[in-house]
Every structure is written in structure tokens, then in C-alpha cells.
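Give me the fold.
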Amino acid sequence: MPSERKHVSSRLDLLQLITREFNANLGSDQVLQNVLSATVAAVGATDAQLLLFDSQGQPEHRYTLNDFKLSSQVVSHRPAEFDQGALAWVRTHRQGLLINDTATDECWQPAESLAGAASAICVPLQVPDQLLGILTVTHPQPDQFDGNALSMLNIIADQAAFALTNARLFEAEQQRRRLADTLVTISQTLNASLDLDEVLSSILSQLRLVVDYDSSSIMLFEDDSDVLTVRAANGFTEMDDALQVRLVYNEESPNYHALHLQKPVYVPDVDQEPNWLKSSSSQHVKSWIGAPLMARGEAVGILTVDSYQVDHYNAENIKIVAAFANQAATAVANAQVVRQLKNAENTYGVLFEDSTDIILITDYDGLLLDINRKACQLLRRPKDFFLRNDVAFIDPRLKSYLVEQTKRLQVWREPAVEMELKNAYGEAMPLEIKLRQIQYKGRDCVEWVGRDISARRELEKMREDMVHMLVHDLRGPLGSMLNVIELIQMMRSQNPAHERIGHFLEMAYRTGQAVKDMVDSMMDASRLESGEIPVQREPTDLGQLLLAVHEQTEPPADARQTELIFEPLPEGLSNVWIDPNLIRRTLVNIVGNAIKYTPPQGQVSVTTTLTTDSQLRFAVTDNGPGISPVDQATIFEKFSRLEKTANSVSGVGLGLAFCKLAVEAHGGTITVESEGIAGRGSTFIVSLPLLEPE
């Protein structure tokens, strides 16, 4: 066979081989070795190189054939020959280039692996809109290739470009499907589990199916701090060390840049990053991706992906990592919502059970769904006794009220009613019950809150009683004073010089003073309690003070035919340093009470002594019904009065409270002694320390 026909046959066989190999799979190193080996043999070359570009037109991978041995490497740095020499010419002109003698051709700028070449052919692998790579074959002797060899390489390059494009499209589709499948799996995990650590670990496991990494982690901010803590990790040799990593939020670190910019950050070579901090678990890391976890517009953590190779990742990898970071952020947001709901439920549960009010929860049919501890205590029944029963079981009026108010409740009105409920022992409890619609276990229900208003009703009754007592207590002396004034006016009209006018004026004055003292005592009780009234001490003549008390209490004593005795003062006891107004009113109150409670024709005595420890002691003794020990414990409290009987004396219940406050304001004490036996009466004792004038 002629030589030319042999070459043609050989080249046809080569095209068939290449077509068959490319159709099989371009992604296999074995396929590339077969293609490069066949190409070298067919054109009489010794070495070959295939440089592939990424989607941005940058060198990505280099396949080299020397002595029929294929080697491959990821291109981490832009090679020098890429911007000058034959590769640059082919990249610029998108045409094949034949170099007969590399020593004389200015276009030749060989790579280190092809440094011994004397002749070469460079052809582009291209599609209409993109340069995919450059194929180069060489020979150590010059003038070894011709135009036919160049044409053959152009055909092979076109075949390779077509196959490479299809392979990349197929790989992208496969990648898209794997990504979609993994995201579906993650979504299923999110829906199936509320365990945050389990979900985050699943995300890292699924990420490994679509992005090649040596190690990966998810770090979250600790509560209310700038510290990132590893919550999930994958691929670390020392997993325990990896899970113990805590990073402070450093403004210079790549982590900070990702979180601050709220977008992924890629570090191709961490050794070239001055602010990169290596730990025992990350000492082999070379390239790194950090994607922030954004939840409700705030960064809650970061997902990191590491490779032990320099510049191992591309834009597509970064995009995928960001998508998985979004899934992790969703998991964190869900966990936060669940935690908040649990905290809210726990808080509501504590408030529900520990509330001092009765709380019931029913549906709109009146079925009891829950009842708190206070309700069980007041109703005197265990919780299980109420649950799943109708609210009418507690009181039929509750069910009727629920039916009446249903429409108002459903439009978020909050009706209220006062009602007396009876417990298991038949004891009545006055309650103010408020109703409102709430969400309970996912449905509309009714919350009943019952507040005990016993104290409020008692206060209202006390207020009503006090008004009645005030009217009663003031009506008598005011009526007497008006009668005396009317009598004086009548006497003056008949005889202006009537000898009794002065006596009646004195009676009117005493009555008016009694009314004033009563009003002052009511006002001063609270003011003394809060310290608003200072004690106005002054040198006071005890004889004159007791005379004023006698004159003020003698008329009611005479009216009841009660013997009123003021024992003489001890010798040498005359002037004392006290507030005469407060002490006078105190003694008038005590003596007046003794007269009121002593039966007609009884006896009341007032004794003044000086004790051995320099205490001024007033003792007011009567022979009335006495005071029981129970009443003695509360008799000096505000609004406290003795148990009402048919012969009870009306009053506001502020007199003795005022006396106690006035005496204590002097630094003294007031006590009562009584056996609680009728006829033996009581003795009230006021003790005041004797002080020297300031």
C-alpha cells in the first residue's frame, strides 16, 4: 500500500477510535489517556498536553502525556505560557498553529513538561461561543509535522470540544438532580425532626454528595454573645476537638466578612490569608468556603466547607454551599420558634398552675379541658374529678352564661360576671369571672378566670358600715350642739341676760370639741401611720390636761349615771414634755369608750402614776363586760370593733387605732388587761417615757 494511503487509513482508524472513546465517557482519565496516546501515535508525536478551561475561560485542569504515561493536575495558578507564546496565540486567534522549529519560532513558549520539544502543533477545543481548551502535541526533532497533521488535530479537537460540551451538560444535569434530591432529603428531615443537631448533621452529610470537601462544620452564635460554637461537623479526624471549637467574632476574620456582608466568602489558599486562625482540627485546610446562615434578616451562624487542596472550589460549589446554608438557617429558625413555643408553653403552664385566681379552660360546648391548682383547692376537688366533665357540673349558671356569651367571645369580646359558686362542702365563694377566647391545643376554646372578691365585698361592706357609723356617731353630738344653739337663741330673744346662757355656750363648745376630736382622730390615724404628723411636744401641766379630759367626758358619764373618778396626781408630778393635743384626745377616746361600754350606774376611774423606770402611766379602769382574749389581739387595729351583740355600741373602729399610733409616736405603749368576765371590766394602760425638754 502506498505510504500516503497508509497515513490516510491510520488517521481514519484514529478518528473512529476517538469518536468511540469520546462517545463512551470524556470524564475518565483512562479515556483521555487512550485519546492522547492514539493522537500521538497517529501524527508521529512523542508528547501531548490537553489544557482545559472553566466556564470563565481560566485554566482549570491539565492532562499531560510523556512516554505514554498520563498525569493530571488541577491548575491552581494561571501558567505563564497562558498569556504568551503558542497558547496565547491560539487562545487569541482561535486557530490551530503549526510550529516546525521551536528554536526559531517566536510563538513558542513551552510548559515545563514540554520543554524538550523541537516541533509542535497547538489547536483549540472550541464551540461557537466558548473556548474549552487547547491541545498540544510535540516532537524532539524539528519539521516532524505537516499540514495534514494540523488538519487531523483540528478534527480531533472539534470532536473533543463537542464531547466535552455534552459531558459538561450531562454532568451539570446530574449535579442539578443530585442537588435537588439532597435538598428534598433535607426538607424531609426538617419536616420529620425537631432535633436541631440531627438536622444540621444531615445537612452536612447531604452536602457531601454534591460538593467534594474534606471537612465541614456549622457554627451558631451562642445566646446573646459574639461567640460562634460548632453545632455540627463532618470529616474531621479529631471530631471531639472539632466540636469543642469556639470562635470569638473577630472583625478581621473571613468568618466576620461572610457574616457582615451576608454572602458567601471563598478563600482559595488559607496560607495566604493573614487573619486565618488554624486549630488542631483544621491544620490541613488549604481552601475554604464560608456561607452565612441568615434567619429573619439576621446572621445566626455560618456553614464552612474545607478542602486540603489549594483553590479547590469554583463558583458553582460556592452557590451550592450557600443553598445548603439557607437550609441550615431554616432549621435554626424552626428550632428558635419551637424553643420559643416551648418556653411560652412552660411559662403559661407555670402561670396557669401558680395563679392565685381560678382558671378553667373549656371548649364552646362547655367541656372542661383543663383546670388549675387554685381552682381545685377552692372547689375542694381533685383535678381528675373535673376533666372531661361539663362546666355545668360546677354550676349550671356557668353553662347558661357561656351559651349567652358565645357570639361575643367569638369576636374577641371579654365578658365578665359576678357569681357565687359553692365548693364541695357547700361553702359560697363570691367570684368575678372573666371569659375570653384563646387557642388551646390548636383550636378555639374559652378561658375562665375567676377572682375571689370576698375581700372586695368585705371592704365595700366595711365602707358602707363606716359611712353609717360616721353618720350615727356624728349625728348625736351635732344634734345636741344644734339643740343647745337653738336653746341659746331662744333664751337670748326672751332674756339676753339669762344666767344659764353661759352654761349652754360651754355645753355647745364641749360638744363641738367632741365632734372636732372625732373628725381629727379619723384623719390623723392614717397620717400618724405614715409619719406625716410630727409630735408637737411642749411643757404640759398634767393637772390641766386631766381637767380638760374630765370636762369633756363628764357629760356622757352623767347621761349614763356612770361614776367618773379621776384619782389625784402623785406629788411632784406636774409638768411633762408631751404633745398635749394628742394625749388629751387619746385619754378622751379611752375614757369615752369605757363610759360607752360600762352599763348604766357603773364606774370608770383614771389613775396617773410614775413608775420606777421613769414612765408616766395612765390607767383607765371600768367595771363593764370585759374584753375576751380574742378581741384583745385585734382591738387596736384600724376598723376593728368588738363582736356585735344586741347591746353593742356603734362606732367606726378608728378610736383605739388612733390611740395606739399617738402613744407610739411618743415612744410609748398602750395595752389592755381584762379577764373577759362581765362585771370585772377592763383596764387600759398608757405608758409614756418622761423626756426632758429639748
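The CA atoms of residues 1 and 590 lie 150 Å apart.
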